[in-house]
Amino acid sequence: MTAPKPPLILVVMAVYRPKPDQLRAQLASIKTQSHQERHLVAVIADMQSADLVCGLAAQLDLPCTCVPCDAELDAVRAVEAGLANALDLIPVLNTQGDPEPLIALSDQDDIWHPDRLARGVAALTDSPAQMVHSDARLVGPDGAAQTHGSMFRFERRHRHPGLRGLLYRNNITGMTLTMRARVARIALPFPPQSGVHYYHDLWLGLIAAATGGVGLIGAKLVDYRQHGANAIGAVDRQKGWLRAGKRHLPNGMWIRHEAAAYALARYLAQSAHNRISDAVDDGRLPAGDAQARALRPYLGRMDGAATHLWDSAKLALSGHLALARIAGGFAVVNLGRAAWILREALGPGRDKAIGDFDTRLYSMAPGIAPKPPRAAIARVLKPVEHDRLIDQRKVPRWHPQFDAPAPALTVMVPTLNPTEIFAGIVTALDIGLGLAARGFHVRFVATDLPVSSPAVSRSFVLQRQPGLAAEAAARVSLQCGVRGGQLSAHRGDVFLATAWWSAHLADRLIRDHGYSQSRFLYLLQDFEPNFYAWGSDCADAMASYDFDFEPVFNTTLLRDYFAQQGFGFATGDTLAFHPAIDIARYAAGARRDTTGPRRLALYGRPEVARNMYPTAIEALSRFIETEKLGPQDIAPVSVGLRHDPVRLPGGVLLESLGKLPWEDYPNYLLGTDLGLSLMYSPHPSHPPIEMAASGVRVVTNHFGPKDLSTLTPAILSAPATAPALAAALSQAWHSGPVTATDRAIDLTTLGLSPEVMIDGLAERLGRMLSCTPTAKLHRAPQSVQPSDTTSEKAS
Fold first, then answer.
1. Does 584-749 match 394-578+756-783 at the fold level?
2. Is this structure's pTM higher than 0.85?
């Protein structure tokens, strides 16, 4: 009897600046697998290692497909691209009648044991499980010296957590897993996220657990190489927690940390449940194979806390104390969520509704409300502490502890949590990292919101400069200025303010604590007094321009506006830089031929006044009426912030997509014909420039010295009125396609390139610090600021 043919296994590997000897060792271990039916799918996430990978694979006679990338990808996006290509390869490499192919994941620097794939195939054979994974041995950077015999024991992992347990802590390591292709078909595309907050192995594990199960192979089938560049690395989390003591007792920071973890778990649970439902509806998954019931505590509107408490008790009794703490934290957050909902529904909302009704009732007769008893008035009129009425953003919540060995640039930003970071903060991060690359010590201080996870925040910040050398990264530190207490400092520090209230902080800290630098740097990215109605905020923002500082302007347009307003510090030699938009990323894409109605993209952010959403809707309505357009002619779509769809004249419906993932944004624009993007401020919004570079004819407004139409004929700039904007839309509607020349936009008219600006800033900072940086000045790899559309939030 002929033995059945072994299944083909597609091995997906993300390659990012590998060490050649480590990569060769890994490829050799894949080549020497006892299961010989395997094909490497290497995603070239760094855009430069294709020759190395293909060359090594050829030397080893290892079948390989290299997947090129248009931009550098993080680990999650690289695996996502690899899985998509693996699925495309299955019908090419697999002939009819062959066993269903499997997919395995691999890191670029580990070493597989010879039976890694064979054991995975055996575990999946005649099993309903959709995925299997294994234990691993921890080894040092040399790949030989064992540091721990078992990753599971070292990290105290739960061996069989179940579907819900994966959301307390993932126990699956991607480089050990083997799965059926069906898991990838259902899992793609991965749920979007801002920054990396979940990893691919967790998402794939959730899908596998909800569609047939996940099996564990108890053996160590991989040598996991531990070194300084691991994306995560193996950590004894419970040991660290037990040593932390009172730092993990319930307080404001603890609640915030637990809420962030619960939010991620709830997001993934709902995403997995919705994906499973979609797969059943479209036939990818038989209804009987869906096993997502364990996710119910995350799906309900109010319930779930009892289940998390029960999970916590069971985990504690089984010795998994750290997991029990996580489950208990989820119960606390869930209860807090329910209490918040009830308070809002039955408290202020109820009282306001009753009060409003009674006010209207008494206005009819006798015209005034009855006067309450004196005791009730006394209960209501309680004294308020004065500091509750003062804008706390202007008051430092920390004290400097002058123990730092060297002066540093202290960059004050509202937040360092990745999900709360918008484009203005990103610019400040890039400036700080650029100066660290040029030899300066840099401290980032969060002034408004507490840092939820220092490790995640640090990883996110350093990923802004992928080529940042290790010694430069060591000069970067992150501090939380919200919790109070003392922060490490040096009397020679120089502050960089990034918003009007952080300018107040810099001035106060310098005056109160005797810093030797009387001036600070001030990153000016808009004219902030105009964000507010006349009042305290407007006055405080205006007052920040009276402090002693050196300005750095985001574009010459903003500098010129300040000069027009009579500010003497806005001179021709003041540093000004142009937006960090990668024009080539948009201009190089081939326009897509589309049939049917022409697509118009509106930059729609109703909550942000300066984006003039009502004016945009009025202009769009006038344009549709003037041109007598219907749904067969135009398909308007709003991107930016999600809002309700809008019925426009002629039966046209404006749909809202909300914030687009940054990596999907350029391709979306290549299929867009017209754009409407408004910004009633001197700051040049990025979307009009990105749209024009993508070949979109876009309408925007001018403001003071700002006229983006001088950059390219693809941008039509009009007065910020609905009739003028509607007329510009009509002009764009009847204009021809945007030429390649018009897409090649030169930004240098808006200021220095960010890199040249940072060079100039480094010279000035060196003079202010009166010292030589600890490393030679050099150019850091340019980092591109995300667009307003994908990253900016409302001020």
1. yes
2. no
